[in-house]
Amino acid sequence: MPLRDAARAACLSHAFLRSWRCFPNLTFNEEALWSKARMYSGDFGDAVDNIMRNHSGIGVKILELWPFCIVDHNLNSWLQVAVIPGIEKLTLRLCPLSMKKYKFPLSLLSDGVRSTIRCLDLGFCTFHPTTELGPLRSLTSLHLLSVRIRGDELHGLLSNSLALACKLQRFSCLRICACERLKLIESKAPNLSTLYFSGKAKLSLGEALQMKKLSMWRSDVICYTRTELPSIMPNLDTLQLCSYDEVVDTPMLPTRFLCLKHLTIYLISGSSPYDYFSLVSFLEASPSLETLSLDMTADQHCYLKNVKITGFSSAKGLVELTCYILNNAVSLECLTLDTNYGTTRRCSDSGFGRCGSFGKSLREARRALRAIRTYIEDKVPARVKLTVVGPCSRCHKLS
């Protein structure tokens, strides 16, 4: 029932008034109250004051205040009314301007509250739990958004959350955003399978064998991923990378992402030129790759003139990479696609004899040639010389 109708009904029915006063879930947000506050002679704060006075001394299980821009003595008084033993969920989301102004009062977390609260969600405030704070026995969900809290304080809070510590054994998803001062992310959660991370902190996850989905936003993340992750995250299925200043070209390494199926790369050009062709390292390292998405939101590639892909195949990701190069390398002059594999020599190279046996490679070479004709040839600009190298027609039937 809308707040205005509930207030009118309460005036007519004492039974309904008692029921409304005992309602255990209170949500104060713009949708619920800003438009309704006009019916009061005061403002938004007056509306909340009215409701809180009716709930004084009566248990509240869920209290949600968001997005909230009132930071004065009223806020503390409202919390003192609602945050009492029996509360299970507290959501307090202030506006960004309040972050430096409001310090969450630890006195609210009395022993009785710590015994019952299951979910604590704080946003845009200062929160400094002390070592004297007792255990939060029932806490199973913790969400901190733009909260000022030190690393040792967060560690102490998690150590005091006994139920949350047990739940960490089943912990599967971690999101860390905009923590610019964070230096190290260390996790021993054995079932962590999804990680979303932006920032410069180092990762210490041990052997993250259960990690299936990883999203990282940081400088030089592409080089870091290719160098470090195959050995510690061998079972990655989905990988999303965003680099806003990639200054080191992607190295060619023997390590591989054997299970990787979906790869997305966002590149925002920095001050140094980047060899985009080095991204082939990911393709060679990912034999199970099914989808490849490249988003180069920066300037077009003004310096790339000569591209050669040896061992070109019909793999979708490789075809897409080639088309991307044709569309974005504005200075490209020569593109060579060599469908031959390994060290197999052709008779045209030696001048005599016959070509070596291709076996399965010959069948793939045929598919690669069809892919070039179907998807690439018509995208080659007039300024670009396309050279396609395949098994010679003298020794092999290619059609």
UniProtKB/TrEMBL annotation:
SUPFAM superfamilies for the chain: RNI-like
At1g61320/AtMIF1 LRR domain mapped to chain residues: 51-298
InterPro entries, sorted: At1g61320/At1g61330-like, LRR_At1g61320_AtMIF1
Domain of life: Eukaryota
PANTHER family noted in UniProt: FBD DOMAIN-CONTAINING PROTEIN, OS02G0105600 PROTEIN
Protein name, entry field: At1g61320/AtMIF1 LRR domain-containing protein
Species the sequence originates in: Digitaria exilis
